[in-house]
Specification:
The complex is a heterodimer. By secondary structure, chain A is mainly β. Chain A is built from no helices and eleven strands. Chain A is globular and about 45 Å long. In chain B, the strands form two sheets. In chain B, strands 2, 4, 5, 6, 9, 10 and 11 form a seven-stranded mixed sheet that branches. A four-stranded antiparallel sheet of chain B has the order 1-3-8-7, with no helix packed on it. In chain B, a hairpin with a 3-residue loop joins strand 4 and strand 5. Chain B is built from no helices and eleven strands. Chain B is globular and about 35 Å long. Classes of the chains: A mainly beta, B mainly beta. The interface between A and B is medium-sized, with 25 and 26 residues.
Chain lengths: 112, 115
């Protein structure tokens, strides 16, 4: 099956710092999503971004589908950004609609 | 909308007992997904439904697990008999239409502990 690798596995920041999280995947995809799991366990969808660039406030994401990677940028980090960031992909096979495969996540800790 | 609703939020049971987890998707969503999250295996898709019909159950770990969706607003995931290795957080998610094109919205999860 498709492999999804996220880096770094852990990241510790001081409030106000910027960061870049990376997601590499092993096959062509027609769906890529970034999620944030907060310290209470809730999973929140951040971006649906199979290709191109999107921005939402201090967060932005870029996916280069031809090179099979996606980046999540967090600027001016805040303590509320702490949690685990997951990348999830769906491969380009007609019978696989809806089958998201998740990476192992990046654990982000932002200190005040 | 209230979002995806799951119950119970926490469940503690003894090995061998039957466990039933419940999910109410967002109204109008066509797809419903069940995931399991563990430290060892991360987030795994177990099964998903489209218009109440199971589409892919290849992620269901074994015959002890079963899932049903009797109508558009309710789904259950049942484990019988439960084992300690089933301890995990089980998430339900729903989406408006098949990807590509839409996002999956997750419920708060059910934390299951099997003693």
């Amino acid at each position: 099956g498709i492999q999804v690798e996220q880096s770094p596995p852990d990241l510790i920041l001081q409030e106000g710092a910027n960061s870049t999280l990376r997601c590499n995947f092993s096959d062509s995809v027609n769906n890529l999503q970034w999620f944030h799991q907060n310290p209470w366990g809730q999973l929140i969808n951040l971006f649906y971004i199979p290709s191109g660039t999107k921005q939402n406030g201090r967060l932005s994401a870029t996916t280069v589908a031809t090179e099979r990677y996606s980046l999540l940028y967090i600027s001016s980090s805040q303590t509320t950004d702490s949690g685990v960031y997951f990348c999830a992909v769906e491969i380009e096979i007609g019978t696989s609609y809806g089958k998201l495969t998740f990476g192992q996540g990046t654990i982000l800790t932002v200190h005040p | 909308d209230a979002g995806v609703i799951q119950s119970p939020r926490h469940e503690v049971t003894e090995m061998g007992q039957e466990v039933t987890l419940r999910c109410k998707p967002i109204s109008g969503h066509d797809y419903l997904f069940w995931y399991r999250q563990t430290m060892m295996r991360g987030l795994e898709l177990l099964i998903y439904f489209n218009n109440n019909v199971p589409i892919d159950d290849s992620g269901m770990p074994e015959d002890r697990f079963s899932a049903k969706m009797p109508n558009a607003s309710f789904s259950t995931l049942k484990i019988q008999p439960s084992e300690p290795r089933d301890s995990a957080v089980y998430f339900c998610a729903s989406s408006l239409e098949a990807p590509p094109g839409d996002t999956q919205y997750f419920g708060p999860g059910t934390r299951l502990t099997v003693l």
